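Fill-in record for NADP-dependent 3-hydroxy acid dehydrogenase YdfG.
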Amino acid sequence: MTKSGKRVAWITGGGSGIGEAGAEALAADGFTVVVSGRRADALDAVVAKIRAQGGAAEAIALDVSSSDAVIAAADKILAAHGRIDCLVNSAGINVPKRSWADMELDGWEKLVEINLNGVLYCMRAVLPAMRAQKDGCIINVSSWAGRHVSKMPGPAYTTTKHAVLALTHSFNMDECVHGLRACCLMPAEVATPILKLRPVVPSAEDQARMLQPDDLGRTIAFVASMPPHVCVNEILISPTWNRSFVGGL
């Protein structure tokens, strides 16, 4: 908690899924949350929901693959609030064509631009303010695929999510001396809208057994609530009924 009592969190990919759940959980914990994403209507709905629950929220339309747009968004948040205490990098995509047999370079490049470059752009954008504060928490949403290689997510997704894990640890190596800390959150299957992009969409029964967005929202809030001397370097989390263990993947 800052001396003024105000804490500000910026959540990318905040219009749905894990980002939305993280924004709601952080707002419930007293953060002023700024959600960003490419769909203004989805962001507005999240903001309205948080405000209806008594939280403080606002939205900034953003494509994280544009470094200039990311810098402008960070500057806008800092101009309005004077600080950024927590960054949640939740923006991410996958594509239907995800095997070596049918992958396309356009799909590879989109995943690298959003899943990896976008994370880096946002981390760099908040770095000066967090260094000046001598305090700041970054939560990078990677994936079970960032730790374990399997066929289903595809080479592009798996590669970018592994890279996010390395990026997170390298950040902690350099920035711990400035009081900053980052966590790589690696969830296995989560029942979010991105599942609709899979070549084979999981059944409703299987999705009910997966991690739910609220599970990740609570996890994000837990990491963000740790005192400044605590760095949760990584979290690998899965549903108890894990399809990669029981032969469903």
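KEY FINDING: Residues 8-245 form a domain with the Rossmann fold fold (CATH 3.40.50.720).
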